[in-house]
Every structure is written in structure tokens, then in C-alpha cells.
Amino acid sequence: xxxxxxxxxxxxxxxxxxxxxxxxxxxxxxxxxxxxxxxxxxxxxxxxxxxxxxxxxxxxxxxxxxxxxxxxxxxxxxxxxxxxxxxxxxxxxxxxxxxxxxxxxxxxxxxxxxxxxxxxxxxxxxxxxxxxxxxxxxxxxxxxxxxxxxxxxxxxxxxxxxxxxxxxxxxxxxxxxxxxxxxxxxxxxxxxxxxxxxxxxxxxxxxxxxxxxxxxxxxxxxxxxxxxxxxxxxxxxxxxxxxxxxxxxxxxxxxxxxxxxxxxxxxxxxxxxxxxxxxxxxxxxxxxxxxxxxxxxxxxxxxxxxxxxxxxxxxxxxxxxxxxxxxxxxxxxxxxxxxxxxxxxxxxxxxxxxxxxxxxxxxxxxxxxxxxxxxxxxxxxxxxxxxxxxxxxxxxxxxxxxxxxxxxxxxxxxxxxxxxxxxxxxxxxxxxxxxxxxxxxxxxxxxxxxxxxxxxxxxxxxxxxxxxxxxxxxxxxxxxxxxxxxxxxxxxxxxxxxxxxxxx
Length: 504
Ligand code: MCA
Ligand code: AMP
Hints:
Rossmann fold, four-stranded parallel β-sheet, 31% helix, GMP Synthetase, Chain A, domain 3, alpha/beta, 25 strands, binds methylmalonyl-coenzyme A, binds adenosine monophosphate, 16 helices
């Protein structure tokens, strides 16, 4: 095989006129047409001077073209670096600079704000809009619809996905062809995907869930995706009758349960609903079953590892658990201090090892060594325990992380900005329960003696640097932060104090 990822996921469909993508407006795109577009994109990237191993940063709205850039990168051996469309130019600047991306692709609407970023990072800036227009797409039309697939090995890096850290800045997780492929193969088998499946795809395609889990599985199985630009309730309700499966973050399912049109007859034909990226409350699981008769299948993954565990397709899907280790993936629960394996039933650090586990962080050997053991186990930062039947329960986090609507938010990043604000002495950013997003961001600040920080000004300053989903939904001034005897801020105490800000 010349290029395992491309040949297995994409190349197998060459000349296949079957439908791959169904769009919200009723248009369809065949596998063959998708591959012709990808070949043209690979041609453009090569003409722009990129060769195997180079990075292309992509901050574009969801569209078939956006997904075809991923295919083009795979075909040309180029490293795909997708970016959340909510990121501000400040945030994008870091990713482009850190990765050394030679090309930055963006929507026309962001061209002005990203011109300086691209220039200062030495990257070529091209545009790609979700309607197929833009400078990159124009260039593509001048290229042949075939491209000679670059030779790659399973160990070659296929994608660089940035994930924030509890200290300092984001780290680029290097995912190899083998990481992506092995996980897709396991999940197709475990979740019984076939060419008859039609996946309702309302997730973004810049994170593991929508990009790799959903798309790679469909590609491997040769099925179809109803490819919506995002989670818009009317469209989801309208398209559910045409789908056989759906994947989502818990917010999708709580929102569906809040809509009276979401009924048992509407989804009676559906064979599978998958949830992940954030904890699905056992209560949501139960309400979903009551409403639809279906039990959601919850699984557990990370950017660095793809999917690690899953509830069974056949067999009991146990609410409040993330199921069993996937075939080929080992999961152990260890003592956070000693790294020793703990007896069954005890709570400890979740560590995982397998072909799904990433190669390391881009140009950060020390960070890699801190989290990826020499024997291949990755220390996830999640706390869990196995029950008597072998189901994994995630019971907490050993990392200071907030997950809002499936997006990860690292408090440290926000605290650093808050601490620089006028009249702010110090701050603590916490996640509190939220009915829609699961958790949401609250900033607790202490004012300098005798001063009164201007909260509106603080919010406005933060919005210049950070993506909207990271903005504190509330900024609260307190006289002092709770600390333990060692002087460490007790975030648990703050979380308890503000637990009911958004929920009764
Ligand atoms: C949008 N907003 C958010 C979020 N999304 N705020 C906090 N958290 C969010 N997740 C902001 C908007 O900017 C807007 O701000 C306001 O909230 C309401 O927007 P709304 O239109 O309701 O939101 P939406 O566009 O419907 O988006 C909500 C969403 C979306 C559909 C839940 O966030 C989403 O698609 N999440 C999926 C994330 C995902 O794919 N995660 C997988 C990561 P304002 O109105 O104030 O301007 S991969 C991963 O975690 C691992 C590997 C795994 O296991 O899968
Ligand atoms: P990310 O960095 O976006 O890859 O997010 C990975 C994190 O999401 C994990 O370390 C977990 O904390 C969390 N996560 C993913 N799936 C689940 C799940 N089913 N239940 C609880 N947490 C989850």
C-alpha cells in the first residue's frame, strides 16, 4: 500500500459514484466527485510549495470542501491542522507560528483580520468559503482531477490537533496515519457501520469527534453523511428520518429532549446514537430511553488518543459509564503519585496504551515525556474506576479543565488574561453546571485593595483575545479566594459555592 490512510479511507472509493455527502439544501456529492476535488486541492497545495510533512492550517466553515482539504493532505502526505472557527486572530497566530504552517486557509470574511497573522508567520494566506468560492478553490479549478498519491507509512504524521494545557499554551498532538486508521477500523467493527449507514453529521469538522470519529468511520464503511453546517434544531429534526445513525456531544441530546418534535416515531428507524466529548448525565440517558426507546451509546476519547473505550453495541449500555476498553487499547487505573496500578474498584488516573495513542506533542519533548510514558501509556488526566463488570466510570479530572458544550476550556488561559486586567489582584476560573452546555465558565476575581475592577471592560478585553465559547458567562468579585494551608486556591470550594448559578 502506497499510503495507508489515503488508500484505505479515500482511495478505495475512486470511481465510486455512490453518494458520500448529502447537504442541508438537498444537494449531494458522490465519492468520486469528492475525490476529484481532493486531488485538485492536493495539486494546489503542491504548487504552493508544500511537500510531505509540511503543515497546512485550516480555519474555514464546515463544508464538503473543508473535508476535502483533509483528504488532499492525506493524499499529498501533508499534515492537516484544523482550527476552531471561533478562534480569534490572536489564537490563530499562535497555532500558525508554533506549527510553522506554510499555508493558512480561511473564510473570505476573516481575510482582513488574518492578513497580518499570516504575514508575521511567513505563511501564504488563501481563502475557501463554504459555497465553494475563494482563492484556493479558484486555483483548484486549474488543476487536474487526479493526483499521484504520495508514499507514506503508518508512522507518518497525518494531522496536528492543538489541545490546550493546564499550564502555558496549547500543544500540538501529532496523530499518525496508523493512529487514525486503527481507530476507525476498530470503531466500524464495534459499532457495526456498513455502506447502508447514513450518519447525521451536525458536529464541527475541526475536532476529533466530527472529523475523525464520524467522517473516518463513514469513509471506511462506504456509507453516507447528512452533512449539516452545524447543530440547527430544525434541520436536525427534518433530517433525522433520513438517517440511520447520529453522533453528538451531550448538548445535542439535551437540546433534542427539550424539543417536542423529537418523538419515538421520528427516530424509530434509527439504529444508533453515540455520545461523547463530555459526560452524559445518567439522567439524560434515562430520559432519552424513555422518550425514544433507544439507549445512547456513550464512549470516551481524547484528542491525543482518539477513542479509548466504548459501551457495547450488543449488550448493556450502562448509563454513567464509558464502557469497556476498545479492542487493541489497554486501559489501567493508577495511583497519580506512584503510577502503580490500583486494585479494581479504586479511583485513580486513567492511563491508555494502544495503536490509537498519538506520537507526541509537536516540538515539545518535555511535555511529551510528562504525559506519555516510555512504555507507551498515556496519562490522560482523567480520573476513573472500573466497576465489577469491567465498565469504566469517569469520576473526575486530575487536570484543571472545563468542558462546555463539548469544547475544552483551560482556566489557566483565562486567568492569565484576567490577572493582567486593571485593578484585578488575582483570579480563579471555574466550571459550574449549566443546563445547555453541561458546564460553563465563571470567573472569580479579587480586586486590588480599595479598587473596583470594571467588569464590562474586562469582558470586552477578553473578547479580543479569546474565542467566544471561552468567555466567562459571569465575572464575580469576592474579597478573597479560598486557600488550603499550603496556600493553594481551593477551586472545589468555589465550584460548590457557585454550583447553582445557572441551574436550580
Ligand atoms: C457556542 N457557544 C458556546 C458553545 N458553542 N458557548 C459555550 N460553549 C460552547 N460549546 C456560544 C456562542 O458563541 C453563542 O454566543 C452562544 O454560545 C449560543 O450559541 P448557540 O447558537 O446556542 O450555540 P451553537 O452554535 O448551537 O453551538 C452549540 C453546540 C456547539 C452545537 C453545542 O458548541 C458544538 O457543536 N459543540 C460540539 C463541540 C465538539 O465537537 N467537541 C468535540 C471535541 P453568544 O450568543 O453569546 O454570542 S473532540 C473531543 O472532545 C474528544 C476527542 C472526544 O471525546 O470527542
Ligand atoms: P479533548 O481534549 O477535546 O480531546 O477532550 C478530551 C476530554 O474530554 C477527556 O480527557 C475527558 O475529560 C473528556 N471526555 C471525552 N469523552 C467523555 C465522556 N464520554 N465522558 C466524560 N468525559 C469525556
